Every structure is written in structure tokens, then in C-alpha cells.
């Protein structure tokens, strides 16, 4: 706590010094300039506006925080030294001017009375002259009063000059802050308009996205229908392929059977040739040996042997 008070007193003393006041002037002016510059960048939509506004606003915030440590100026009751400063209105000025000669006459009379009062009569002796003792203290006080008044007047003039300078600085800072406030207000209006445009654009975008979603749902439905159709077509194609495969198997089987049929047909043709030869021999034998039964029987047996199947 002691360190905190020490730091607070140090900061207050530094702020009240000439260097501190100069630093405040530089910081206020530069911070306001940076804020105006950042607002200009934001209005023109130039890059870096956010950074400039942050730096300027941060500087102003720091200045306002440091202002809390500034010591209030001392106020002197100059009305006690200069009563004419305690005038209410112009009528009092006129009255004071009208009463000025009378006051001067009264002051002279008061000075005379004071001087007369400073004469001290000591007990008189016979034949002695009255002795006068002029007190030196009022004279010294009168000599020191103008010096004190002059020094107080000089201090008052310096204080008034410093107050006037501070008032001018305050006026300049107020004007700069008013300008910054106007610029910030314009920036806020521009941002508000931009936000309204962005809101309208976003609403249009949302509507378009809704339409797009609806269209995508329709496309998905059509795609599902096509998938079902393709699935049914694939089933039909599978059945057709199976039928073609069966036909191919039947054809291959019939080809193998047809070759066997050809072999059997050739074998049957050979048997028919052999049978025809046997029949021919039998007929020949029957015709030639019609009247020789033994030869006919022998010829028949030979024909039977010839007619027997041969592997």
C-alpha cells in the first residue's frame, strides 16, 4: 500500500510537471491524429484501419487513465487581496468607480490619524517640551506591503497564464475530440449502412441456399429413381446373361451330341452297307443255288457270318 501511494505521488508529480504536461499534449494530439487516420482508413476501406484505430484508441485510453492521477490546481482567494475582484456585476463596477475618490480621501485621513496616533506624549515636566515618538513598525509594514502585493500579483498573473494555456489546450483537445467524434459517427453510419446491405445480401444468400437445397433434394429424388431403374435393369441384364449362358451351354452340349450323332450315323451307314452286301449275297445265293439246298445253306451261313456286326 505504501509503494502504491509512493507510485501514485510520483505519477502525480510527474504529470503536474512541465515535461508531463508536454507529454500529455503530444500524446493527446498524436493519439487523436492516429484515431482520425484510422477512421479515414475505415471509411475508405483501406487495409490497416483496425490497427490504427486500436493504437489511437489505446493511446487515448492511456491518457485518460493517467489524467486520473493529475493533481487539481490550487485555487487562491485573491478576493481577499484584491477586493475589486469580488464584484457581482457591472453596477458594482460603476459604484466602485464612483466611490474611488471618497475611498482615497478616507485612506488619506486614516493615514493621518494613524500618524497622529503614533505620537506618544510622555509625562510633561515644568518647562519641558512635549516629546513625540513615531513608531517605526507601521512604516516598515507599509514598505513590505507593496513587495508582497507585487509578488502575489506576479504569481497570480503566472497562474492565470498557466490556467489560460491549459484552457486553450483543453479547448483544442475538445475540438479534436469533437472532430474525432464526428468522424467516428460517420464511420458508424457507414458501418451501419454496410451492415444493412450485408444483412440484405445475407438474406438473399440464405434464400438462394434454400432454393439450392430444394433443387438438390429434387436431384437426389431423381437420382434415387434412376438408381432403382438401373437396379431393375441390372436384374434384367443378369437374367438375359443367364439365359445366354444357358443357350451357350445347350449349344456346346448339342455340338458334342451332334458329333456323336454323326459318328453313330456313319456307323449305321457302314452297317447298312454291310447288311446290303449280305442281302446281296443271300439273294445271289438263293438265285444261283435254288436247286442245291446244301449249297444254299452253306451260302446262308456264310452270309450270316458276314452279316454279323464287326467292331
What does this entry show, briefly?
This protein is an all-alpha fold and 311 residues long.
How many helix segments? Answer: 7
Q: Distance between the terminal alpha carbons, to the nearest Å?
A: 135 Å
User: Which geometry do the CA atoms define?
Assistant: rod-shaped
How would you classify the helix and strand content by structural class? Answer: mainly alpha
Major beta sheet summary: none
Uncertain spans: 98-142
Mean pLDDT score = 72
Order of helices and strands: HHHHHHH
Query: In which range does the helix fraction lie?
Result: over 70%
Percent of residues in β-strands? under 5%
Q: Kindly state the number of beta strands.
A: 0
Can you tell me about this structure?
83% of the residues lie in helices and 0% in strands. The protein has helices spanning 2-16, 18-43, 49-67, 78-81, 90-117, 137-288, 293-307. Residues 98-142 have low confidence and may be disordered. α2 (18-43) packs antiparallel against α3, α2 (18-43) packs parallel to α6 (137-288) and α6 (137-288) runs antiparallel to α7 (293-307).
Show the helix and strand layout.
Layout: H1 2-16, H2 18-43, H3 49-67, H4 78-81, H5 90-117, H6 137-288, H7 293-307
Features of this protein?
rod-shaped, mainly alpha
